[in-house]
Amino acid sequence: MQIIVFTIILSAVFNGCNAIWCYQCTTATPGCGQPFNWRGVGYLGSPCLDNEDVCVKLIERKGAKEVITRDCLSNFKAFRTDIPADTYEGCRVAAKDVNLANFVNNTIKELDIKRDWYDETIWCFCFLDHRCNSGSVNSNSILFLALISTISMARNILF
């Protein structure tokens, strides 16, 4: 009976371990610009919250100035309205939101409420690259581990 309970608990613990790991940094972080140097970032990334998440590299250019932001797509969805509809692997130009700040009367030009400060905004999506890999748990390995531990516990009880 203990073996069955142990196996059920083990399979329940490892059931929902799907995550994708992405770097989370900006150009102000050493190593986060071009060329990318993960040693300069100082850590190996963090897991994204959404199971269907992808890693994003957002490139915003104004003249010769380039700002790069790396993060999970779910972190951008809360405040960005220019995310392209196609989030499959590759780079795309930002979507135009014609309704953004349509009913706002603001004369402070430093507040980029219409998101037209940058000349070019490019979204790069990845989930097949380095640190863009899915962290899904291999269920065969867990089942094999549970089977081996069950057999060894049964062998200790019977013999």
UniProtKB/TrEMBL annotation:
It comes from the Eukaryota. InterPro entries: QVR-like, Sleep_regulator. One of its GO terms (cellular component) is side of membrane. Its main location: membrane. Keywords: Glycoprotein, GPI-anchor, Lipoprotein, Membrane, Signal, Transmembrane, Transmembrane helix. Residues 1-19 form the signal peptide. GO terms for biological process: regulation of synaptic transmission, cholinergic; sleep. This is Jg11181 protein. It is a lipid-anchor; GPI-anchor. It is found in: Membrane. The keyword Signal applies. PANTHER family: ATILLA, ISOFORM B-RELATED-RELATED, PROTEIN QUIVER. It holds the Pfam family QVR.
